Amino acid sequence: MGHTGVWAMSQAMSQAVWATRARPSRTCEPTRSEEKLRDGFGLDSFFLSYGSVFIGFSPPLVDGTLSTACRTYKGSLKADPLIEPPSMVVNTVLSVMAYDYPPEKLSIYLSDDGGSDLTFYAMLEAANFSKTWLPFCKKFRVEPTSPEAYFRTASEPLNDADNWLSVKILIDGRDSNAVDIEGNPLPTLVYLAREKRPQHHHHFKAGSMNALIRVSSRISNGPIILNVDCDMYANNSKAVKYSLCLFMDEKKGDEIAYVQFLQSFDNLTKNEIYASSFRVLQQLELHGLDAIGGPCYNGSGCFHRREALCGKKYEKNYKVDWKKVSDTKADESASFLEETCKVLASCTFEHNTTWGKEMGLIYGFLVEDIITGLNIQCKGWKSMYLSPERDGFLGVAPITLLQTLVQHKRWMDGHLQVFLSRYCPLLYGYKKIPLKLRLAYCPYNLWAANCLATLYIVVMPCLCLLKGISLFPKISSPWVFPFAYVAFVHRAYSLNEFLWCGGTFRGWCNDQRMWLFNRTSAYFFALFETILKLLGYSRLNFVVTAKVADKEALKRYDGELIEFGATSPMFDILATLAMLNLFGIFGALKKVILDEDEDLEVLEKFGLQILLCFVLVTINLPVYQALFFRNDNGKMPSSVTYKSIIFAMLACTATMCF
Ligand SMILES: O=c1ccn([C@@H]2O[C@H](COP(=O)(O)OP(=O)(O)O[C@H]3O[C@H](CO)[C@@H](O)[C@H](O)[C@H]3O)[C@@H](O)[C@H]2O)c(=O)[nH]1
Ligand SMILES: [Mn+2]
């Protein structure tokens, strides 16, 4: 069997393993009666935003990372100059403030990693607005509790002024005046913009999470921490109680370090043009992980046990007395707390400490969530996966192809980096987590490496077809059967799985296209960059996923038209490969038509190769459309068109000559 077969087979097998592991989704009926939870105990929720800084202005606190992000996304930011708009952050915060949970036990922290005054004032507004919003939610049992999602109306622009603060307790839950218009207490609300300086690495999201862990421990010290990214909002106000039921479970609760919720997105189109729902991964594979030790930590929509997140090892007889932990709020004045917290959020605080190594989220990886989750599991803790009927959290999936590819590149870069580091699950997890779980991490870790096999399959059969080298058995040979079987069964399996998880047939086709696009461009660059990093030629760079696009692009997104519209080396690759396979088909046609007497012989010899080229061309149809037939701003830039034609011709000529 050729490379193709072996590779397809291994893929099919890994999926089959998943299927046997998977079990029906856990229903979320609380395992313990809700009454016991009525009083609740302290709960801290963290929000992360990278700030909303106008491009063009250069605020002193923004460092290279953000400007890189802005540059990368310039193409899609023509109309709206913000990548994480404050209105989005505010909605996320409000959605959680309105949880169906005793507000006096709830503390909410926002990390503003852009250090932007705009976000700060937006938070002030949010604090004010919450006084009316919370009673409203309660009275009318509003769901979702994010005002934006609830009303779907635009928010008012905010005046900006120049006043920057690092830690500010906007609502002090201990204050008896902090009440809504009906006199009910409000949750504590804290704004944090940690200190950042060019000489000190800020460690991206992991750094801001760790700053939040410290600051919150000083103010409210909730034993459970909820982490939500600013591009998600709470969609099920029972989520806190659901997860607490797991943590407080009398038998198994004490060994759980984190409860990860399934992540859903509220801006997906019917057929998920960029395959961003991760349907099968979330509905099948993560449940599979749940059965063999626990799901990975996915960065958002996750409840953590503070102690475990802070590096505590699980000990056999570890038992939490929930009554004791419930009331540990500081009794100093708010302004005093603000002052003392500034030290905790300063950029030098972590020097000579184990923060980022043994405590808090782990530094040095682009998938800080995965590595932190793995590390926690390796300390003896279990994790749990929850997918309630009503989604716990809803987020924003990328709306352009480039945003999607850039996000995938970061993830896969991070994953491969984990595999090649001392944290490689196979070795690091030895004797700490089950072999099954160690193996289960590997397919994700090695996704980037998968690009080589994919590139081979896209380039070689086509070039060999042009050159007249036959790679597969003749059509009439019985050896065609294993190829056909593997290819067919593997795809049929994948389709079935996709439909089973609630997808549409066209959604599956789009998924297949994105599979190809990601593996030939994003994963290839991820592999390349990981190697450069290993050799010391490249530095870690967290490119924040842009969360907005201009109106026109949004319209095209809703119409499920793929958005190219920018120059990127990734598009050069995609277009070149598409052209190459088109040439392959032309070459094959020429052979069949011109060599009249031989035509059957050509089909006999190259049948499978021609078929493969044909499938690739079909998958790439939207690329040809974007290269040659579209007029909107989302079409492929003409420079990419020229480049792809030239590169593909060069490749063909070179093959013919040598
Ligand atoms: O220096 C930084 C960079 C990012 N963020 C925040 O981190 C979150 C995630 O960033 P985003 O650009 O939205 O990344 P995604 O691609 O959506 O992130 C997914 O993958 C990341 C790991 O690559 C995880 O950290 C995320 O939780 C997970 O949602 C956002 O709230 C950002 O505001 C910071 O606070 N500081
Ligand atoms: Mn995100």
TrEMBL record:
The chain crosses the membrane at residues 444-466, 522-540, 573-594, 606-628. Its main location: membrane. Mn(2+) binds at K205, D229. Keywords: Cell wall biogenesis/degradation, Glycosyltransferase, Membrane, Transferase, Transmembrane, Transmembrane helix. InterPro entries: Cellulose_synth, Nucleotide-diphossugar_trans. GO terms for biological process: cell wall organization; cellulose biosynthetic process. SUPFAM superfamilies: Nucleotide-diphospho-sugar transferases. It is found in: Endomembrane system. GO terms for cellular component: endomembrane system; membrane. Belongs to the glycosyltransferase 2 family. Plant cellulose synthase-like E subfamily. This is Cellulose synthase-like protein E1. It comes from Gossypium trilobum.
